[in-house]
Structure to design on (710 residues):
């Protein structure tokens, strides 16, 4: 049985549950490597994965005998079989933040469980700590992102639209080994950069525009996330002090991020420094990155936890002056015992493009 | 108050509910035009939409006074306010197939409702029947899809990869007024076409390949869906009879689709004719299309309903010979009282490209 399934079985036992229904495909992928539609059943004795004929071949080739997972085609399973998976179980765990109320009721009926027990995102919480293999894939996704950024610095010209740039990013990723974008690219130029959650538009890049580019890719299921604000032609005077303030705080956060650091204090420090200068931090300072682009831990002043070694999180302070301009600088970083390692390594000084 | 909200209020009353919490953003968009994150509350007296500061401006500009919807910023609402929305209500409806079990429990607590009542996808069911404006947008999405197909016939060359073609489709749509793809494009050539749910790969198009292209775009929120199987260089002899059989059944279905037609019989007729020839229909014959690419009604032999005027559905028979090749032909069609209208109008005869 693999280490992750072993962990889950022990966790379940510790919570006095006799089994668990794992429905979230990302949690299934995390625990087993399986990338399909189906449900993983952890029962008293065995582990089962139930899928349909579309995925059967693929699932069988993903698993080895050591995984200790019995695979079923759902069309071969009777209602009687379903009732037997958890017979004589008092408490069976389920993912209350993933399955709908309708699915919950369906599970209650199908498995004839005495009681389905909430599990408080325990697998998602475990996913915060990445193993060696996961760190390797995240590193690769970040490398591709750096390479794409280098390419963009040559590519971007004044007069191009934001959409053209976003489009080039997707093209670059797909042609260079990424499987997809990790989220919809944001290219926000000029006034558009003043929105923290800007949409990419048909606006053309003009001389003097700050251009905020927030982008990333997925590599073998794992995400990257990076933002840079760069400049078309020249850096307007009004932007410089804001840029320096954001960069200073991004570097300071990088300096402070390590195992044991208080998440709340990290976020509060940035907000405090912004406020001293007449601004504020209007969004989170960062978030976990892994199989999902936004996952736990969320780096905000409302989070009372501390960072742990092998978490991978973003560090993304930003300042936005509505109707005017905005600056955001973001890296994806790996937390270690003694500090943190930037996985995205692109230049963070003010960069001028389109000259 | 707009017609759709009026309909919902009457429906709720008929079901002896005193209110409803609408959480699915597509249902909110359908009912109100609002394209944001938030929740629509239908209460005894008023309609409220609760969102956050990111969307407030956009939502206010979408609504008119006639909509009769009061918009709140969620940060202005106290827990006391939440409790008051449904005070003295016995039954308040919710979308059991959309919200998670955790959200259900959260709603129970937040709104202090006596009882949250399942609503059996009643808004999704209402969404099956499209109004004039919706049909206009669906027609436009289908027109763009036809134009893209015409462009592809010139574009595709032997030696290109499947991904290059998929990529060109996305580029065409974005440059010609669509907001996005309606789903991930399938380009499946040669042997790959033998999988009903193929993934687009780096395989190059070779002479004699059948190429199944399944694609569509979104226009102002509304989806299109079309499939054609075309041929690189020439049509292999072995494919011809299969192609003709699929096309015959696609045309026959088109002929039979109209208000009152039994969905089950439509699907069964195709399966029967395929079986007479030694094949079978391994997937549904079609599905509804609207704000979602796959929505009700599902055109399969398990559906006991009949078609209704102003439904928009796909008609997509296919035959797949594992490891060999496959053929699928799909249109998006509008059902009327007396027949149906193809919204996708591209040529369905065998087309040769790359010559």
């Amino acid at each position: 049985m693999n280490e992750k399934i072993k962990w889950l079985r022990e966790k379940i036992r510790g919570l006095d549950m006799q089994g668990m229904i794992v429905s979230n495909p990302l949690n299934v992928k995390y625990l087993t490597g399986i990338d399909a539609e189906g449900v993983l059943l952890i029962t008293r004795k065995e582990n089962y994965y139930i899928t349909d004929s579309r995925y059967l071949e693929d699932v069988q080739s993903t698993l080895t005998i050591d995984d200790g997972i019995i695979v079923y085609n759902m069309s071969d399973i009777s209602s009687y079989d379903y009732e037997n998976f958890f017979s004589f179980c008092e408490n069976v765990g389920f993912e209350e933040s993933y399955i709908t109320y309708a699915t919950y009721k369906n599970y209650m009926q199908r498995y004839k469980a005495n009681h389905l027990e909430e599990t408080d995102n325990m697998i998602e919480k475990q996913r915060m700590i990445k193993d060696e293999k996961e760190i390797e894939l995240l590193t690769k996704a970040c490398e591709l992102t750096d390479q794409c950024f280098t390419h963009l610095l040559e590519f971007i010209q004044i007069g191009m639209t934001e959409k053209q740039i976003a489009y080039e990013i997707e093209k670059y990723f797909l042609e260079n080994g990424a499987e997809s974008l990790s989220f919809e690219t944001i290219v926000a130029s000029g006034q558009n950069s003043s929105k923290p959650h800007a949409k990419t538009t048909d606006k053309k890049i003009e001389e003097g525009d700050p251009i905020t580019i927030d982008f990333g890719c997925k590599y073998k299921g794992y995400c990257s996330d990076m933002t840079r604000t760069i400049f078309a032609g020249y850096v307007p005077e009004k932007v410089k002090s804001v840029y320096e303030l954001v960069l200073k705080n991004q570097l300071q956060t990088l300096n402070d991020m390590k195992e044991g650091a208080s998440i709340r204090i990290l976020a509060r420090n940035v907000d405090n420094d912004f406020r001293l200068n007449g601004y504020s931090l209007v969004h989170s300072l960062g978030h976990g990155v892994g199989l999902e682009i936004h996952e736990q831990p969320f780096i905000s002043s409302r989070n009372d936890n501390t960072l742990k070694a092998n978490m991978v999180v973003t560090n993304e302070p930003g300042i936005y002056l509505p109707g005017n301009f905005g600056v955001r600088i973001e890296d994806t970083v790996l937390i270690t015992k003694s500090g943190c390692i930037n996985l995205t390594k692109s230049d963070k000084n003010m960069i001028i493009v389109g000259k």
Summary: The longest strand of chain B covers residues 226-232. The interface with chain A takes residues 54, 94, 96-105, 118, 163, 167, 170-171, 174, 197 of chain B (CB under 8 Å). Chain B has a mean pLDDT of 95. Chain B is about 35% helix and 20% strand.
